[in-house]
Write a structure and sequence with these properties.
By secondary structure, the protein is of the alpha+beta class. The protein contains five helices and nine strands; from the N terminus they run αββββαββαααβββ. Bound molecules: flavin mononucleotide. The site of flavin mononucleotide has 16 residues, from strand 2, strand 4 and helix 2.
Length: 215
């Protein structure tokens, strides 16, 4: 049995994306869109983004991670350096980040190169996390097979005992990645599927080429 979804039809018309209103650099537009998403009451988890990697097996894989900073230095997120995504990045640092903010009928797709952040940066960010998340980072060997839920909870108990009355230090296998963008694609939904798509591609230091793509 195949469930048909062909009655799902949404038309878009909240906004437009026109060259005369935007910069020749992508970051100002990303910043504006991010801030508009932050301010919108119907956007939840504005910094949740899809991270796509493609590792040794050649299969792309997407998963959600949280964007923790963005700016001229790049886009950062934090994770386990032994996870599937980290193994993929070690093989192939080309990644794709994407955001979908349905309340604004907007999508942003960023291709870039991922690099581990410095140990110092990871330590600083780890220290800012709630204690429960810090303990969780020790307790979970992310992306490995668990025998049961109990096994995970047992690991957490052991970690809680180990760090009882102590500060939780950053696990060596945990840290950040910084993605240096190579292209930004901005998508604004429009009527009759004639959406606006603007792509910025990095050429060289401070130089980006901007083009409109057919929807
Ligand atoms: C809203 C949301 C936020 C998440 N944030 C992170 C994150 O910042 N870092 C992370 O490692 N995993 C995060 N996860 C879990 C990942 O999606 C994923 O399950 C995990 O990183 C393991 O992925 P991997 O096995 O492909 O490496 C988040 C999941 C969701 C749904």
């Amino acid at each position: 049995m195949q469930k048909s979804l062909d009655t799902y039809r949404k038309s878009y018309g909240k906004s437009e994306l026109l060259e005369e209103n935007i910069s020749f650099f992508p970051l100002p537009l990303f910043t504006t869109w991010f801030e508009e998403a932050e301010a919108h009451p119907d956007v939840g988890e504005v910094n949740a983004m899809t991270l796509a990697t493609c590792g040794i097996e050649g299969f792309p894989k997407n998963r959600i991670v949280l964007l923790k900073s963005f700016g001229v230095n790049g886009f950062s997120f934090y994770t386990n350096y032994d996870s599937e995504k980290a193994n993929d990045i070690a093989e192939n640092p080309r990644v794709c980040l994407s955001f979908f903010w349905p309340a604004l009928e907007r999508q942003v797709i960023i291709k870039g190169i991922a690099m581990k952040t410095s140990e110092e940066d990871s330590i600083t960010y780890f220290a800012s996390r709630p204690r429960g998340s810090q303990l969780g980072a020790w307790a979970s060997n992310q992306s490995t097979i668990l025998g049961s839920r109990e096994e995970l909870e047992h690991q957490l108990k052991e970690i809680e005992e180990r760090f009882q009355n102590k500060e939780v230090e950053k696990p060596p296998h945990w840290g950040g990645y910084l993605v240096t963008p190579r292209s930004f694609e901005f998508w604004q939904g429009r009527e009759n599927r004639l959406h606006d798509r603007i792509i910025y591609e990095f050429l060289e230091k401070d130089t980006w080429e901007r083009n409109r793509l057919a929807p």
